From TrEMBL, chain A:
UniProt GO molecular function: double-stranded DNA binding; RNA binding
Highest taxon of the lineage: Eukaryota
Listed Gene3D superfamilies: Winged helix-like DNA-binding domain superfamily/Winged helix DNA-binding domain (1.10.10.10)
Biological classification of the source: Eukaryota, Fungi, Dikarya, Ascomycota, Pezizomycotina
Protein name, UniProt field: PCI domain-containing protein
From TrEMBL, chain B:
Limits of the PCI domain: 321-495
Protein name: SAC3/GANP/Nin1/mts3/eIF-3 p25 family-domain-containing protein
Phylogenetic lineage: Eukaryota, Fungi, Dikarya, Ascomycota, Pezizomycotina
PROSITE patterns in the record: PCI (PS50250)
Residue ranges with Polar residues bias: 136-146, 185-194, 215-226
Region (Disordered): 1-66, 129-232
Gene3D superfamilies: 1.25.40.990
Low complexity composition bias: residue spans: 48-63
Biased amino acid composition, Basic and acidic residues: 155-164, 198-211
Organism annotation: Sphaerosporella brunnea
GO cellular component: nucleus
């Protein structure tokens, strides 16, 4: 019991925000004894006693600051207590709603009260930004608890709305950080990107990606005294670049998507393969769209999950094997849709088609006049696939349509002469960027 | 983690936390039975001045019933630190009152709302109170049967009596002004001692009534229908006429103008018949809107509701009224997800086509994610998916084939973006074909019904000059040609314009 308080006193005295953050992490296993150190009736008195006369309160913040800390520690104890003592069954929570909540639901309720108390510390009691780690831990755990509570509710067939509630909390914390007008060196603005990261994560999980744009807009609107992004901790930068990149990706703005994702990849810690994989999941398709380039096999050897995800589809694009492409797309459809890359990868078919037509061109000895029918037959084979299957006849109009599409998109240079059923290709660089 | 909290295990030892609760047994009078005065704020009788509540000295030693102990334990189990004080005060008052009225042992503590609940309700109530001053005159003196329901908690009946002396001492202070207009209006002559207590008690009483889920507090000044929709009981209409003009409600619905379900069922049959016979869309749409409104205000949700929305959606589609269609569609999505059945696959297919119309890629991804393998085998959905992939691949050839071959109402929906896709296709064709192409080919490829229609479309887009008649050897016209090179710019611009203004009326 005393360890908690003595650490707390020591961290507060030495202004050690990071250590305070991990001390006030409710999932910290050391909290076991703290949870049993008191009860609901005496906790406040105990905390008041333990916190009285800490030196940092004396120099500067005084009574108000101390009261805030008492509130924070008491409501933190409530969280810990709920986690340690609350049994896993369902119980009616006396919040007036009369709703039955599960273990995590109750923990979430306490956690959300705790988060509010922490934010009050910043708003009303003049907490400085070295205490931001306390806010980070609160927000991170709030989100975790909400997710668990929602899973719990869903498993008993009830509606799950805790994560939405958590998102509202996080949004408030975002404003709390962003709108701080204290001098930069002690401003809460330094916490902005951490909270934004959590907020993005939450909105993505809630499938409310449009809400992310509001956040980005709010960030853009306060450029005046906001420190530049690259002065923030790298971890905050990586998360921010990643999500902004993905948002651009989903809006089909592949150029900006690539820029942000690339920035994220460059800044990402070399050992965090999982994060790199996540970034590459969007960077690979974005790069395919902007430059028509496919990842190398070397890349795949470093990231087995990406190999599983992209290798088959990439190789079919390379060879122009439409049948295999369709099959690869279909096989992974669920995963692609889940990661929201299906609609982009589907466009890879254009590149596959371009590569097929390019082969026709090369096989024809790079002649500039090629009958439409040659392309049609090639397409017939490509659709049927290598291992026989019935060769499918493609209508001449359809192949013309696809050729027209290639020309229109600038993947081929030339024109179609319908009268002569000929494709007339450009003398030089008939297939731009492919060396022929 | 699973160990019960020690203080709870002891069972109600939590009593220690409200030591200030003193039982007072000075107030005479028995536990009330059924009848009581509902004059909550009647003019102050001069009697019983000695019974100032809650502050009287406590009886020396009191025992508490077990349910009460548990009630207290429950109370403190979930108190937010910032609320603790208020909750304590509230709890104190509740228990004191219970003792005062000697119902401590008879009261069902298990069913008693917790102080937190009462406080929360009170706060909400306070807000409400500030608006309708009409309540003051109407609620008091109400001895109607509904008012009797107030008395479910014997506590509150009793309190109502003991209230009278307090009312006497209320005044027009700022506090009462804010929280209890009634008290102020009815006793302007009173002094200002127990005002705080009064409004607290008033609120508490109100809170109890609410807490018990009783409807009776609804002030009679509001009309009865308002009461109906306020509560859990949905309104049931009494209107018997089959047809009704749509009117966007600005106040609570009047049951006399709302048709009950069995009438609405007949209405639907009538509307279906009228639509077949008259095809008057503005009439039919108006009627359907009022039909939908009647369903909504009566909280009717069943397969019939689904049917109504489906039929209205189809009619709206037929007339190209996408705004109305989309309203129906979003309602249908909710209804299907709640388990009511209709033609879910058909409408899923429409949804896909509609998302193509609005170019909503994010939602399209969601829809694709939610499709089941069974869905994908359904004819309409398969068609819609093929349309989607044709558009994604820029395969206008296939797209216009699918357009001409759309199942159920899909064609109507595709009408809304076919013109746009024609421009896109023309931009593509004009860039790829040289030097000119046959109009016939365009007609075939772009799904026009005739060459004339095709030429008309080209002319409408300002490409009339680029159409020329070619003559055969003997001067006989052989074909109409369209010059592609110059048309590229025209259709690039037309395409850009067309994709820019996507109708997102009532977008969900």
């Amino acid at each position: 019991m005393s360890i908690f308080y003595s650490s707390l006193r020591s961290y507060l005295t030495h202004l050690d925000g990071r250590a305070l953050g991990s001390l006030l992490n409710p999932t910290n296993p050391d909290n076991h004894s703290f949870a049993y150190s008191s009860n609901h009736y005496s906790i406040r008195k105990t905390v008041e006693k333990e916190l009285s006369g800490i030196s940092s309160f004396r120099n500067g913040i005084t009574d108000r600051g101390q009261r805030a800390w008492v509130d924070v520690v008491v409501s933190f104890w409530e969280v810990v207590c709920e986690l340690e003592r609350g049994n896993t069954g369902r119980a009616v929570v006396d919040d007036g709603s009369g709703l039955e909540l599960g273990y995590w639901g109750r923990a979430y309720t306490k956690m959300s009260a705790y988060t509010t108390t922490v934010s009050r510390g910043f708003i009303n009691s003049g907490w400085q930004n070295w205490l931001l780690p306390v806010l980070y831990e609160a927000c991170r755990n709030l989100r975790d608890f909400a997710i668990r509570a929602d899973e719990e509710e869903k498993s008993v067939g009830k509606s799950a709305d805790k994560l939405e509630d958590a998102a509202r909390h996080l949004n408030k914390m975002f404003t709390l950080c962003l709108s701080d007008r204290a001098p930069l060196e002690e401003s809460r603005k330094w916490g902005t990107y951490y909270i934004v990261g959590l907020l993005f994560k939450t909105y993505f999980k809630l499938n409310a990606i449009t809400l992310c744009k509001n956040v980005v807009r709010a960030l853009g609107a306060t450029t005046t005294d906001m420190p530049p992004l690259d002065t923030f901790p790298k971890s905050h930068q990586v998360t921010f670049h990643y999500y902004v990149g993905v948002i651009h990706f989903l809006e089909e703005d592949y150029v900006n998507a690539e820029m942000h994702l690339n920035a994220a990849l460059q800044l990402c810690q070399s050992g965090s393969y999982k994060n790199q994989e996540l970034i590459l999941t969007y960077l690979i398709p974005a790069h395919l769209m902007t430059t028509h380039q496919l990842p190398t096999n070397t890349l795949f050897t470093n990231y087995p999950r990406l190999k599983h995800l992209f290798q088959s589809i990439c190789s079919t694009i390379k060879t122009g094997n439409l049948q295999a492409f369709d099959q690869a797309l279909e096989e992974n459809e669920d995963e692609y849709v889940r990661r929201r890359i299906y609609l982009t990868l589907e466009r890879g078919r254009d590149i596959a088609l371009r590569n097929l037509f390019r082969r026709v061109f090369v096989i024809n000895g790079k002649k500039t006049r090629i009958p439409v029918d040659d392309f049609r037959r090639a397409m017939g084979f490509a659709i049927a696939g290598k291992n026989g299957g019935t060769r499918k006849e493609v209508e001449p109009e359809e192949i013309e349509c696809l050729l027209a599409g290639m020309i229109y998109k600038g993947l081929m240079r030339g024109y179609i002469s319908r009268e002569k059923s000929m494709v007339v290709l450009s003398n030089k660089e008939a297939f731009p960027g492919t060396g022929v | 983690m699973t160990a019960p909290p020690p203080w709870r295990a002891v069972g109600g030892s939590g009593n220690s936390s409200y030591t200030a609760v003193d039982a007072r047994r000075t107030l005479g009078g028995s536990v009330p039975t059924g009848g009581f005065s509902t004059n909550q704020t009647s003019p102050p009788p001069a009697s019983a001045p000695a019974t100032a509540p809650a502050t009287a000295p406590g009886a020396p030693r009191t025992t508490f019933p077990d349910p009460l102990k548990q009630y207290v334990a429950r109370t403190f189990e979930d108190v937010l630190p910032e609320d603790k004080k208020d909750v304590e005060t509230e709890l104190k008052r509740i228990i004191t009152d219970a003792f005062n009225e000697r119902v401590v042992w008879s009261l069902d503590w298990d069913k008693m709302p917790l102080p937190q609940t009462i406080l929360a309700k009170k706060r909400a109530q306070m807000k409400q109170e500030m608006t309708p001053p009409a309540m003051a005159s109407t609620t008091s003196g109400d001895t109607s049967p509904t008012a009797k329901a107030f008395g479910k908690f014997s506590i509150s009946d009793k309190k109502r009596k003991s209230e009278d002396d307090n009312t006497a001492s209320s005044s027009a202070t700022k506090f009462s002004d804010r929280f209890d207009k009634r008290a102020r209006q009815q006793s302007p002559y009173s002094s200002s001692t127990a005002i705080d207590k009064l409004s607290q008690r008033e609120k508490e009483k109100r809170a109890r009534r609410f807490g018990d889920g009783l409807q009776s507090v609804t002030p009679p000044s509001r009309n009865t229908s308002a009461m109906d929709i306020d509560g859990d009981q949905p309104l049931v209409g009494r209107c018997m006429s089959l047809e009704k003009k749509y009117f966007r409600l600005t106040s609570a619905p009047d049951p006399d103008n709302v048709r009950p379900l069995h009438v609405l069922e007949k209405t639907l049959e009538l509307l279906k018949k009228k639509w077949r016979e008259e095809q008057n869309y503005s009439y039919i749409c108006d009627q359907f809107k009022s039909l939908r409104q009647d369903l909504t205000v009566q909280h009717i949700k069943n397969n019939f509701t689904v049917l109504v929305y489906e039929i209205h959606a189809r009619i709206a589609l037929e007339k190209g009224d996408l705004g109305e269609y989309n309203q129906c569609q979003s309602q249908l999505a909710t209804l299907y997800s709640e388990g009511f059945t209709g033609h879910e696959e058909e409408f899923k297919a429409y949804r896909i086509l509609y998302l193509l119309h609005t170019c909503n890629r994010a939602d399209m991804n969601e829809v694709l994610a939610l499709l089941t393998p069974v869905d994908k085998t359904h004819q309409s959905i398969r068609h819609a998916l093929e349309v989607r992939s044709a558009l994604a691949a820029g395969n206008y050839h296939k797209f216009f084939r699918l357009y001409l071959d759309a199942p159920s109402m899909g064609g109507y929906l595709m009408d809304s973006f076919v013109a746009r896709e024609r421009m896109a296709a023309l931009a593509c064709i004009c860039k790829a074909y040289r030097p000119d192409i046959d109009i016939r080919f365009l007609t075939e490829e772009l799904g026009f019904e005739s060459d004339t229609e095709c030429v008309q479309f080209l002319c409408d887009n300002g490409a009339a000059d680029l159409i020329e008649q070619k003559s055969g050897d003997k001067g006989v016209p052989s074909s109409i040609r369209f010059q592609t090179l110059k048309a590229v710019r025209i259709f690039e611009e037309a395409k850009a314009r067309a994709f820019k203004k996507v109708d997102i009326k009532g977008q969900m």
